[in-house]
Specification:
The chain is of the alpha/beta class. The protein has twelve helices and ten strands. Helix 3 (about 50-65) runs antiparallel to helix 5 (about 85-95) and helix 6 (about 105-115) runs parallel beside helix 7. The chain is globular and about 55 Å long.
């Protein structure tokens, strides 16, 4: 039987999308598989199949910037040169930075109730700072809960793997549309209104900015070191990009960095109950460290009590 034309065609990696002909570069399944392996190896991020178009559009900019013709050339260059700047650009391109001031708002009253009962000074780590809205929301909450004088002793460490968003976060300037949902009281107390060339912009006040220290950090880096322990860690909407083994490794590194009774805040779609025994669920996506001041483990909540806590109202007392 005569082979069809399709059967006679030599085998090669198939295009990822049928609309590939409209693209500037061929993008094969092999290219995407290699991208997934490299970003997982370097940053612990697990790219799902539906991120193919995103990976193409963002990395195509790197090909144009480097004057390359194929994704294979770019990925070969990435590995051969091992240039930290290009790896940084590769990682920045594939990270997602969706954030807002007081996003998942139910967490901030819990933090406000928690910090006055802690030994001072209070320290909080925002482990996925993005463009700064979350760490500044934490800083504003500390000022509201501790008062201006008490908050001066507090600190917020804000880290992210993406250096581009950290630069924007450090500047602390935002479009007014990004803060218009805040109360007039918070707008007046925590922001300066832009004028002239900065009309339509706001900037966080110096006393808010002074509470926050920004640093680049990769949560999957086995060698990262931080200078202090924290009363609370915000790690929200980050773990969804990691597979379960990576989640367990990240949480294991959090444990010695937390003070006894410290709180871990997770994203709305994240559940650490079956990933680690170091934290027990205490409220809606809020976990408490199970180690007490002596270093001993406190009793872990039963599955039934954890489920009940998870279903509790957002105003739960921790």
């Amino acid at each position: 039987m005569m082979a069809t034309r399709a059967q006679q065609r030599p085998e090669r990696s198939d295009p990822v999308r049928s609309g590939e002909q409209s693209r500037d570069f061929e993008f094969t399944s092999a290219d995407f598989a290699r991208i997934r392996e490299l970003i997982h190896r370097s940053a612990g991020i697990s790219l799902s199949d539906h991120k193919r178009d995103m990976a193409y559009s963002r990395l195509a900019r790197r090909l144009r910037s480097r004057g390359l013709d194929t994704f294979k050339q770019y990925l070969d260059l990435l590995e051969a040169e091992n240039d930290p700047a290009e790896w940084e650009a590769f990682t920045n391109a594939l990270t997602t930075n969706l954030t807002a001031f007081f996003r998942e708002a139910h967490h901030f009253p819990i933090l406000a109730d928690f910090v006055p009962r802690r030994a001072q000074p209070v320290s909080v780590w925002c482990s996925a700072a993005s463009t700064g809205e979350e760490p500044y929301s934490i800083a504003m909450t500390l000022i509201e809960a501790l008062g201006d004088s008490g908050a001066r002793q507090a600190s917020v460490l804000a880290t992210d793997i993406d250096t581009q968003v950290l630069a924007k976060a450090e500047a602390g300037m935002y479009q007014f549309d990004q803060v218009k949902h805040l109360s007039p009281e918070r707008l007046k107390r925590f922001f300066l209104k832009g004028t002239g060339a900065h009309a339509g912009m706001v900037k966080v006040r110096p006393e808010v900015r002074a509470l926050v220290r920004f640093e680049q950090l990769n949560l999957t880096d086995r060698d990262y070191q931080l200078r202090s322990q924290f009363d609370a860690i915000f790690c929200r909407n980050v773990m969804i990009y990691f597979d379960k083994p990576t989640q367990a490794q990240v949480l294991a590194r959090f444990e010695p960095l937390m003070k006894a009774g410290g709180l871990l805040f997770a994203g709305h779609s994240e559940n650490f109950t079956y990933v680690t025994q170091a934290f027990k669920l205490r409220g809606q996506t809020v976990y408490e460290l199970t180690r007490d001041a002596s270093g001993a483990r406190t009793p872990t909540a039963t599955r039934g009590s954890a489920t009940a806590s998870h279903q509790a109202a957002s105003g739960v007392t921790v």
